[in-house]
Amino acid sequence: MDLGPIRITRAPRSSGGSRRRTARWSPAAWIAVASLVGLSVGAGVVAADVILAYRAFGSVGSAGSPFKFVNGANYATASAQGFQLDTYANAAQTSVTVAVNGADGAASTYTLDTLAFQTVVATTVAWTLNVAVSSALVATGVNAAYVSYCTAAPTGVADTGPALASGIDGNGNPWAIYAPTCAGTQVNLPITAVGSGASIIVASGTGAGVTVLYFSFLLAVTNTGASTTTPATITVLAVA
Length: 240
What we know:
Layout: E1 25-34, E2 45-56, E3 59-60, E4 67-71, H1 75-80, E5 84-88, E6 96-103, E7 115-119, E8 127-135, E9 138-140, E10 142-150, E11 156-157, E12 165-168, E13 174-177, E14 180-181, E15 186-190, E16 195-196, E17 200-202, E18 211-221, E19 227-230, E20 232-239
Parallel strand pairs: 1-2, 2-20
Antiparallel strand pairs: 1-6, 2-3, 4-7, 5-6, 7-18, 8-16, 8-17, 8-20, 9-19, 10-15, 10-18, 11-14, 12-13
């Protein structure tokens, strides 16, 4: 799944049109978000298993999922430029493999809104969505890694002001990760630590095919590459 070395001399324009400054890319900086079945990936950093679990009326759902993962609005641009690859493990799209190229400098806009969470059918009850990092990423060469989710599509990301995380890595290079700009309820979770974010309520009567969460992947790696010892697990638990 490793697409090989990528060197960018001019940062891309995001789907929202925001221009970013020059970024340098590591040859082994691919972050893979693998499905629960443990798909094998090539060289790079295996970041997390991202899966959907759900409970309806006190029992675990089985026949048909009320939600699914889909490509976000910015995915086509990110994929065409070689920044992200989404691969779905099953027809129901309840788990997804996401490969993301990590920057060794400031986080950019290319991985914003590249994965979305949608209703499969119209809801007849209210659903509570709980997003959690249930096991943490253990890796070398990763300065910081975050998953950001929001109830509205992100419109960009700052490169000044308070950072989610910042520092100078072991090679002497400064790095920073900034939160996306989002008009809805937004949570930024580090995948290098176990934790959970605020619950999101999907109202009864929400139509089919409605995006209820927009996911973005924010990570910074060293310019000498990165590797995983233990991938994280990110779970979206939907409870009715």
